[in-house]
Amino acid sequence: MAKAKPHLNVVFVGHVDHGKSTTVGRLMYDAGVIPEQDMRKLKEMAQQLGKVGFEFAFVMDNLKEERERGVTIDLSHKKFDTQKYECTIIDAPGHRDFIKNMITGASQADVAFLVVAAPDGVMAQTKEHVFLLKTFGVNQIAIVVNKMDVIKYDQARFNKVKEDVSALLKSVGYKPDQVPFIPAASFLGDNVVKKSANMGWYTGPTVLEQIDKFNPPEKPTNLPLRLPLQDVYNITGIGVVPVGRVETGVMKVGDKVIITPGREGVGVKGEVKTIEMHHEQIQQAEPGDNVGFSVRGVNKKDIARGDVVGHEANPPSVVTEFTAQIVVLNHPTVLTVGYTPVFHIHTAQVACQFVKLLAKLDPATGQVVQENPDMLKNGDAARVVIKPTKPLVIEKQKDIPQMSRFAVRDAGQTVSAGMCIDYVKKS
Fold this sequence. Notes:
globular, 6-stranded antiparallel barrel, alpha+beta, 427 residues, 8 helices, Elongation Factor Tu (Ef-tu), domain 3, 23 strands
């Protein structure tokens, strides 16, 4: 059997209506992943719904409500092979209300394409997405400057957008000279899979070629097993089948595992009977693998999305409070002790309270600027103590970075993002 290609999780992000879904749909179609007849059906459907030109977006937007509204609501995953990689493409919503799903998407991504429409350039959400990608450790990114057809393939406008996006990238810590910028017209197919005849001035890769230019992600197989649950199913004849992506470590058939915190907060023990990926049985799952697995000895009612699987010998850390380093992005007023928004940590969503503001930091260097501040405002970086309203799994940045990052949401905004640097374990 031929050696399996390395796996790559690719996320497409960007401001609403900048053409993410269309870019992904065009990529799939031109690369031959979507048969002609399926495309025809989508085109007819787009016309019936009065959404002419949305057929490529419909490839990923497979929820009826999304088709009628023309926006991406949930994350869609699609399998896709390039010459070098077996990819899972994640089309993440850019729409304001749906940014929490985008956070889940970014936290699963190895690499990202940020789609920016040439006529509009950098928008509020473009900034937020870049910041989140950086916070969630997505270090390899490329920029698709889309809708070049609308500005008549003007190189000067492309360069202006490139300059603005580069300034933004630099401000959060990316090196703009290492980030490729691809001018594209996704609806027409320019520079997605096929080289554009309309932009002779551009000699770089297409979107498809860029995927293969990314480096394979380092697999943290040497770290302890951590697999956050995305869903739990009960399948007749098989039993309880949790589904999720391995973040770190390796899970093998026959492993004795514990799923924490579980409904009771003490964890649920079981034994892995089978592991399945893309409808095929596998013997072991590694970081980056999206798998379903059956567990002996576990009831569906005892576990849920947000729980984390680890080996019984090295269980995930269930904490009653944790110290975090955060950046305040978007708080309507000022952030003070007592504030209790929702924290998005791996797949968990838990209300947590700010119980201490330990120090204000210089965002560029991390040095303490002020001890015990009374409040934090937008743009402040800080060290804080957080108390979850119920047991929660989180790990320290220095131990298992993949399990340490989080975003803080309130009233439809990403208020803050950060990472755990210390914790108090649940006794």
